[in-house]
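Researcher: Next sequence.
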Amino acid sequence: SIQALSASAKGQAKKNASAYGNSSSTAAVIGNPKLPSSVMDRWLWGPMPSAEEEAFAVSELLGCQALVGSAATKETVMSALAQAECVHFATHISWKLAALVLAPNAESVPSGRKGSFGNSYMIPESLHMQDDASDVGSISDCPPLQEFLLTAADVLELRLPVKLVFLGSYQEANSKVTADGLAGLTRAFLAAGALCVLVSLWPVPGAASKVFVHTFYSALLNGLKASAALGEAMKRLQSSTLFSHPSNWAGFVLIGSDVKLNSASSLVGQALTDILQHPERARDALRVLLHLVEKSLQRIHSGQHNSMYTSQQSVENKVGGIPGWQALLTAVGFRLDPPASGLPAAVFFPTADPGDRLQQCSSTIQSLLGLPNAALQALCKLITASETGEQLISQLHQVLVQLQVGEKDQDFALAPIQVSISVQLWRLPGCHEFLAALGFDLCEVGQEEVILKTGKQASRRTMHFALQTLLALFDSTELPKRLSLDSSSSLESLASAQSISNPGPLPGHNPPFSPTGPDSLASDAISVYSLSSIASS
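Model: Next structure:
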């Protein structure tokens, strides 16, 4: 069942600061904090619409909830920093004070003019623009600076698990980068534990920044190191007719270590490992997760951009309570939010697929479900022994390479392919069961090696599924370049999961789950998705 909710619920969910602290995401994105008019007038820190737009785009890429507007308070941001792997700031920066400008808490904003300097804070000398009495009122109307400036000194007091901090610079900003401010702020993040800071030395036009940021984070999500991702983003702008001028790309500087974020594929592999620790419920859980992933792909391919969620409890019930499903969905772009603004704890569907992470996850889960049940059960035993992966991947790859050289419909029984593995690997729980389920017959057991050959039950299709699965679980960095399954190899699809209650859409038609009623055409409406079409486990 689908219900269309008001767009205001979406806004409230995004702005709920307390919800962010419980988010399962390892990224923090801060954009366009809301400042009182007295602060904007006094220090010329005006609204930054392009920064807010960028924040939402980055949060979509990283699978997190953006902290924007009044939600981007100093307290909330510091809490988010303490648990993030990647942090993106799209805010005003006071380079003179080496401080990021955030939103003050609502209770710290004075309700009226006090008419004196009797506040419990000091205005730094470097911020004084005039000394005449006309400024007395405007100063007293401002909240205390320590309430909304995240200074280098504040950062130094933190202990950060952060790998990458991105400090954006926008044309709406009024502050020019200074050497002291740049050194002070970047040094503070590095000293607090951040491994790398990416900063622009001058304001970048919004359109160019949008392309740069999308290319940079997409490259990071594909497993590139920060320096390589920076190079990709720079080259993208250089090769563009509109943004080839150095002012659009040459100002970005990477300071610190050359980091690499946890890629979506490696996070998916870790999550699948957790799921496979529960062999009796793994297959049913994988079917549910594939259903959610393919539903997301269906929405993306049909151009649906409105927010849609299902409750976390419904997913928990369908997967049988096994761990790992939250991490897997988060890794491919789903957003898990705690209860907020009248909404239950929710799983929000992604509206984009950067780096084809949803597509790759779908292929991996389909490969797992395509394995014979005996092979899947044996794999659940093997998964705890990481040293098995390399040998099994090597041998299966060797078999498939020989098949590519030979006839496509080669009969394994008439022309068997021999492989050898170590005795130590053979003796590991689940190994010989896994290979037997793939159709390998035992030929000889030596002192150091075990010789096997492909038998009558072996098939190219099953070998493909097994190799794709092993690459995802043990060697995800090699997955894109070593194996590409044809999309037609899908065994479990969204259509099959809904074949009775929700027939799939025809090309060019609206998907069967599009919201009904007047809100169905509104891109900012929130829809609720029911998992009732999936058979109970």
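Model: The chain has three domains: 27-105+144-256, 264-370, 373-474. The longest strand covers residues 27-33.
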